Amino acid sequence: MTPMENFNVEEIRQDFPILREQVYGKPLTYLDNAATTQKPQIVIDTLTQYYSKENANIHRGIFCLSEQATKRYKSARHKVQEFIGAAADKEIIFVRGTTEAINLVVQCYGRTFLKAGDEVLITHMEHHSNIVPWQMLGEETGVKLKVAPINDRGELMLEDFKKLLTDKVKFVSVAHVSNALGTINPVKEIVRLAHAQGVPVLLDGAQAVAHTPVNVQDLDCDFYVFSGHKLLGPTGIGVLYGKREFLEKMPPYQGGGDMIRSVTFEKTVFNDLPYKFEAGTPHIAGVIGLGVAIDYIGSIGLERIEAYEQELLKYGTEKLLQVPGLRLIGTAKHKSAILSFVLGEAHAHDIGTILDRQGIAIRAGHHCAMPVMQRFNVPATTRASLAFYNTKEEINRLVTALHEVTEIFQ
Amino acid sequence: MNGDIRELYQQMIMDHNKNPRNFHAMTDADRMVEGYNPLCGDHFKVYIKMEGDTIQDISFNGSGCAISKSSASMMTSALKGKTRGEAKALFEEVHKMLSRGMGEPFDAAKVGKLATLGGVCEFPSRVKCASLAWHTMLEGLEPTGKQVTTE
Description:
The structure holds two protein chains of two kinds. Chain A folds into two domains: 9-30 and 302-405, Alpha-Beta Complex (Aspartate Aminotransferase, domain 1); 45-298, 3-Layer(aba) Sandwich (Aspartate Aminotransferase, domain 2), CATH 3.40.640. Chain A is built from 14 helices and 17 strands. Chain A has helices at 9-13, 41-54, 64-84, 98-113, 132-141, 158-164, 187-196, 216-219, 244-249, 284-300, 302-321, 348-356, 370-375, 392-408, and strands at residues 22-23, 26-27, 29-30, 92-95, 119-123, 144-148, 169-175, 201-204, 223-227, 238-242, 260-263, 268-270, 326-328, 338-343, 360-361, 363-365, 381-385. Chain A has a seven-stranded mixed beta sheet, sandwiched between helices. A four-stranded antiparallel beta sheet of chain A has the order 13-14-17-16, with helices on one face. Chain A has a two-stranded antiparallel ribbon with strand order 1-2. By secondary structure, chain B is of the alpha+beta class. Chain B has one domain: Alpha-Beta Complex (Sufe protein. Chain: A), CATH 3.90.1010.10. Chain B has helices at 3-8, 11-18, 66-79, 84-98, 108-111, 127-141; strands at residues 31-36, 43-51, 54-63. In chain B, helix 2 (11-18) packs across helix 3 (66-79), helix 3 packs parallel to helix 6 and helix 4 (84-98) runs antiparallel to helix 6. Classes of the chains: A alpha/beta, B alpha+beta.
């Protein structure tokens, strides 16, 4: 049986109420999953249930609701631990999202352990959130940013990466999957190479965790970061995984409640992991919602999701290449279901507007990866990014609308 | 095809996009102003050569979507030979036309051929594209020193 036959997508679509919506009288065709995924009813219900029946602050109240909320919050941390195969739940830090997780590592690890002249090695396909925080650190401390090149297919040039990995490099920070190109990086090999030089590695898993099984112990990365909202969960919640030895030697990120053991005006003793990095009341509903989203993904199975999305990608690639004048940007051998393209003389925003009137939601622009656009010498691309609730029929709708674009721009 | 889309991307707009008028740098310009919308990437320079109070020549270059480019092209065609005051008045009229429904009605007679840009008001997220060149031009006539953007 092929992955498509083994996967009842129509049944799965019933779990996502927004997929029944119409836009300009057309059924919503949601192809912007790399920006944010839609939410299953069970996640939406969890948030409503939490705020209408269970809301209380955690780690504080000696009353029923607070104890329940604390329990659910802790259990979500455990779910995340199991989801990414971490060794302990104290290695899971809740943050606002991928961006905050990277900033936390830059501030707490980078600022403490890197010094002027040290180099941080990234790739040419990073999202701005894995470029700008390092540049800001560099302005302050003199830490330098080194960029490993990518080839015309949008793949990391591993030989050049190895050459750039000199003894000046003290940190490696790389996307697991590129948001603008879909490229899946050889992250296990990257970690192996860096560790051979004693260099720690952060992997940006924002575009990976909802599409492929991840095991941080198998990858052996030192940090792994991702957002809940790209994983069917609420916005405003994300995860920083860090190996215990790293998190323990890093200073806290922010000061405040929950992250302390004792406070006097003379001295504060910080709390243990993970609380040391979670100052203030966290996004409790978001954490609980994320736990439910992870359960939901687990009930379908990431192996099945991956197989189905790969089949959709293959179908979409073939169909798009039949549109006259269409050029795919990002044709890596190992790719996630992201289809970034340019189409003749039509600018991405004009394409976006024309597709929008057909109810098709795609992303047009630089995808917060301006260096990728510069590398391919295009001002912007149009990007269709797929999820496991998308269908071949939706790809057909996209292709029909693109023919309309070529008609207008002929 | 969707009617609003047909209205937006009508022939005259597509013609200005494909064959933009006054699409070049001007070495002896009195004013060169840059307009840039960083989120969407539309990026143009507008060049103005004045003779007394009159726009003797105006041109533009850069890159952007069909809406921003054709709007810039039509603007340069419309403003050549106009006085500073006339150019400002036309800016106001076009501004009213693009933000129709929110402000006062515009005067169709005053905007003339530029009325083809009027379809943009049905696409609120694209008004910033159509208005970029106009704000860039205004900064050329009345410099404030601020970076020009319509986002």
